[in-house]
Amino acid sequence: MKLKIQREAIQHALQSIQGIVDKKTTMPILSHFLLKVNETASVMATDLDIAVRGPLKAEVIEKGGLCIPARKLFEIAREVEGDILLESQENNWVKVTSGKSTFKLMGLPAEDFPALPEVSNSEAITIKAEMLKDMIEKTIYATGESDTRYTLNGLLLHFVPAKKNIELKVVGTDGHRLSVIAADLEGKISGEQKLILPKKAAMELRKIIEGSTDTVTMYIDKNHMFFAMDDITLTSRLIEGTYPNYDQVVPKNNEKKVVIDKLAFLKALRRTSLMSRERTNAVRFDLEPGKITLISMNPDLGEAREEIEAQYKGEQISIGYNARYVLDILNAMEGKTVVMELQEPLSPTLLLSPDTAGYMCVVMPMRT
Fold first, then answer.
1. Helix 199-209 vs helix 129-137: angle between axes, to the nearest 10 degrees?
2. CATH no. for residue 41?
3. Which residue among 198, 220, 283, 359 is buried most deeply as judged by most CB within 10 Å?
4. Hey, CA dihedral for 135, 341, 289, 293, is it positive or negative?
5. Is-above-0.90 flag for pTM?
6. Mean pLDDT along residues 325-347
């Protein structure tokens, strides 16, 4: 195996797999990527749950294949200044040459690399990359982090066949907050599908499609999903289990409605939360006609209080929230205003963005 690669090309290819190669693994092969060289070159990386396969622009001199340490070659590519020549040698060593710099890395046999699942063509759905990225960003912050309820550690992709298209709902929740965004996609699907995509896979997918104006084709298999775009394919094992019924969580027929300038709300909440307890991030919202007063108290530090204008005509009410949860929602929302709909102080609160149809967030209040 011998090939010449532009420094920027190998940097880009290796950057895209750094989140997937397993650095603290008991299987050394998982900290390597597979470089396959035929008429063209390609790279593959996997942690056994997620895998990425993509092209590598290179001048092929000799064909072959080798597993190469991903992190170390990425560090080398970042430091050298010219094009890179990769050349396999005896006993799975690879020689890396750039200008007057020469490195030798110990590789592993190509045949030892784990086999990747083949793309299934049973169900294929296309979506604009920009739309998919937006749907992930508007929901992923609400997913669980190593939650014992393992189904919450991923995004629900809920496909519903409609008359002429497919409705896709992407849902994230950790039990304290919920985000749902819906969109209509062209195409057909044989039946309703509820698939739980691991959080890590969703984050890697977002990185891959960043800035793309192309379409992504999603292939659905029994235990895996495949996302294909620009000759790059991301494969992810799905989380098994039943996702909570998210429709039941969304409060309906809310009596109290508040309309607030989003930017003013965001800044005021950031400032007020500076004095909240680190563990709870609790901030109290005192609602009264025409305004909201944000209050946080910390017996070890002091307190903060800020008043902002709001369109509200209901009765006076006090309600507490984890400020970080509300800030995450405000950062994900677009537009100039945000609408809060609520009932009682301990009932779930619905947050809506008038400028984004099909997007809604729910946050559970807390005692303050």
1. 140
2. 3.10.150.10
3. 283
4. negative
5. yes
6. 94
Query: Are the C-beta atoms of residues 53 and 117 closer than 8 Å to each other?
Result: no
Residues 6+ apart with CB under 8 A from 106: 69, 92, 93
Does position 24 have pLDDT exceeding 80, yes or no?
A: no
State both tokens at 209: 């499609």
Tell me which residue of 98, 27, 87, 28 sits closest to 61, measured CA to CA: 87
The residue among 247, 272, 299 that closes a domain is 247
The residue range of the domain holding 228 is 123-247
Same domain, 219 and 129: yes
User: Do 154 and 86 share a domain, yes or no?
Assistant: no
Q: Which residues contact 141 (CB under 8 A, 6 or more apart)?
A: 172, 179, 328, 331, 332
How high is the pLDDT of residue 121? 67
Give yes or no: residues 142 and 201 share one domain: yes
**Whether residues 276 and 315 fall in one domain:** yes
Question: Using one digit for the tens of pLDDT, what is the confidence trace for 114-126?
Answer: 998 887 667 889 9
Q: How many domains in the chain?
A: 3
Here the tokens at position 177 are 């907050």
Backbone angles phi, psi at 84, to 5 degrees: -115, 135
Contact 144, 192 (CB under 8 A): no
Contact 46, 116 (CB under 8 A): yes
